[in-house]
Amino acid sequence: MLSKIHHIAIICSDYKVSKHFYTEVLGLTILQEVYRKERDSYKLDLALNGSYIIELFSFPNPPNRVSRPEATGLRHLAFQVENIDISIKKLHQHKITTEAVRVDEFTGKRFTFFNDPDNLPIELYEVS
Protein backbone atom coordinates (compact mmCIF):
# COMPACT_ATOMS: atom_id res chain seq x y z
CA MET A 1 0.00 0.00 0.00
CA LEU A 2 2.55 2.69 1.08
CA SER A 3 5.77 3.11 -0.88
CA LYS A 4 7.61 6.03 0.79
CA ILE A 5 7.10 9.32 2.63
CA HIS A 6 6.13 11.97 0.09
CA HIS A 7 6.73 15.09 2.19
CA ILE A 8 6.55 16.62 5.65
CA ALA A 9 4.48 19.80 6.19
CA ILE A 10 5.71 22.44 8.62
CA ILE A 11 3.85 25.61 9.64
CA CYS A 12 6.18 28.41 10.69
CA SER A 13 5.56 31.59 12.65
CA ASP A 14 7.98 33.80 10.68
CA TYR A 15 8.19 32.81 7.02
CA LYS A 16 11.28 34.85 6.18
CA VAL A 17 13.25 33.48 9.15
CA SER A 18 12.22 29.86 8.52
CA LYS A 19 12.85 30.12 4.77
CA HIS A 20 16.39 31.33 5.53
CA PHE A 21 16.92 28.56 8.11
CA TYR A 22 15.79 25.69 5.87
CA THR A 23 17.49 26.97 2.70
CA GLU A 24 20.61 28.86 3.83
CA VAL A 25 21.43 27.05 7.09
CA LEU A 26 20.29 23.48 6.33
CA GLY A 27 20.88 23.78 2.58
CA LEU A 28 17.55 22.56 1.23
CA THR A 29 16.74 23.76 -2.29
CA ILE A 30 13.58 25.54 -3.38
CA LEU A 31 11.44 23.66 -5.86
CA GLN A 32 8.53 26.10 -5.85
CA GLU A 33 7.33 29.10 -3.86
CA VAL A 34 3.70 30.20 -4.02
CA TYR A 35 1.82 32.99 -2.28
CA ARG A 36 -1.84 32.07 -1.73
CA LYS A 37 -3.61 35.43 -1.42
CA GLU A 38 -6.93 33.98 -0.22
CA ARG A 39 -5.17 32.42 2.78
CA ASP A 40 -2.51 35.14 3.25
CA SER A 41 -0.12 32.19 3.19
CA TYR A 42 3.11 31.15 1.56
CA LYS A 43 3.80 27.56 0.53
CA LEU A 44 7.44 26.69 -0.08
CA ASP A 45 8.35 23.29 -1.52
CA LEU A 46 11.85 22.21 -0.47
CA ALA A 47 14.10 19.40 -1.67
CA LEU A 48 17.11 17.55 -0.32
CA ASN A 49 19.45 16.07 -2.94
CA GLY A 50 16.74 16.55 -5.57
CA SER A 51 13.99 14.79 -3.59
CA TYR A 52 10.95 16.78 -2.48
CA ILE A 53 10.74 16.46 1.31
CA ILE A 54 9.28 19.55 3.05
CA GLU A 55 6.33 21.87 2.53
CA LEU A 56 6.92 25.04 4.54
CA PHE A 57 3.75 27.04 5.21
CA SER A 58 3.07 30.44 6.69
CA PHE A 59 -0.34 31.31 8.10
CA PRO A 60 -1.41 34.43 9.98
CA ASN A 61 -1.05 33.91 13.75
CA PRO A 62 -0.69 30.11 13.99
CA PRO A 63 -0.99 28.76 17.54
CA ASN A 64 2.14 27.46 19.26
CA ARG A 65 2.55 23.69 19.41
CA VAL A 66 3.75 22.07 22.60
CA SER A 67 7.10 20.42 21.97
CA ARG A 68 8.62 20.05 25.42
CA PRO A 69 7.99 18.25 27.63
CA GLU A 70 7.54 15.62 24.96
CA ALA A 71 3.92 15.65 23.85
CA THR A 72 1.84 13.25 21.80
CA GLY A 73 2.35 13.57 18.06
CA LEU A 74 5.30 14.13 15.78
CA ARG A 75 8.41 14.20 17.96
CA HIS A 76 11.09 15.44 15.57
CA LEU A 77 12.53 15.51 12.05
CA ALA A 78 15.69 13.47 11.53
CA PHE A 79 18.26 14.06 8.81
CA GLN A 80 20.96 11.54 7.94
CA VAL A 81 24.50 12.91 7.81
CA GLU A 82 27.80 11.25 6.94
CA ASN A 83 29.90 13.17 9.48
CA ILE A 84 28.13 14.60 12.51
CA ASP A 85 31.14 16.63 13.65
CA ILE A 86 31.32 18.54 10.34
CA SER A 87 27.53 19.07 10.37
CA ILE A 88 27.62 20.41 13.94
CA LYS A 89 30.49 22.76 13.07
CA LYS A 90 28.44 24.19 10.17
CA LEU A 91 25.42 24.69 12.45
CA HIS A 92 27.58 26.44 15.05
CA GLN A 93 28.86 28.80 12.32
CA HIS A 94 25.21 29.90 11.96
CA LYS A 95 24.92 30.30 15.75
CA ILE A 96 22.69 27.21 16.02
CA THR A 97 23.05 25.49 19.41
CA THR A 98 23.18 21.70 19.39
CA GLU A 99 22.82 19.23 22.22
CA ALA A 100 25.75 17.05 23.23
CA VAL A 101 26.34 14.17 20.83
CA ARG A 102 24.83 10.92 22.08
CA VAL A 103 25.23 7.32 20.92
CA ASP A 104 22.19 5.22 19.99
CA GLU A 105 22.32 2.31 22.44
CA PHE A 106 20.93 -0.13 19.87
CA THR A 107 22.79 0.86 16.68
CA GLY A 108 25.94 2.46 18.07
CA LYS A 109 25.38 5.46 15.76
CA ARG A 110 25.98 9.05 16.91
CA PHE A 111 23.23 11.68 16.93
CA THR A 112 22.36 15.13 18.22
CA PHE A 113 19.40 17.50 18.33
CA PHE A 114 18.86 21.20 17.65
CA ASN A 115 15.78 23.35 17.02
CA ASP A 116 14.41 25.20 14.03
CA PRO A 117 13.26 28.84 14.50
CA ASP A 118 9.92 27.65 15.95
CA ASN A 119 11.58 25.14 18.34
CA LEU A 120 10.72 22.11 16.21
CA PRO A 121 13.27 19.48 17.30
CA ILE A 122 15.57 18.36 14.49
CA GLU A 123 17.90 15.40 14.77
CA LEU A 124 21.13 14.74 12.91
CA TYR A 125 21.85 11.01 12.73
CA GLU A 126 25.29 9.89 11.57
CA VAL A 127 25.30 7.02 9.11
CA SER A 128 28.80 6.30 7.84
Tell me briefly what this model is:
The protein has two helices and eight strands.
CATH topology description of the largest domain: 2,3-Dihydroxybiphenyl 1,2-Dioxygenase, domain 1
Q: How far apart lie the N and C ends?
A: 31 Å
How helical, in percent, are the residues?
Answer: 10-25%
Q: Unreliable segments (pLDDT under 50, ≥5 consecutive)?
A: none
Give me the side-by-side strand order of the main sheet: 1-4-3-2
- CATH homologous superfamily grouping of the largest domain: 2,3-Dihydroxybiphenyl 1,2-Dioxygenase, domain 1
Beta strands, count:
8
Measured by DSSP, the beta-strand proportion falls in: 35-45%
How is the main sheet built? 4 strands, mixed
What is the overall shape?
A: globular
Give the mean pLDDT.
93
Can you tell me the CATH class of the largest domain?
Answer: Alpha Beta
Category from helices, strands and their pairing:
alpha/beta
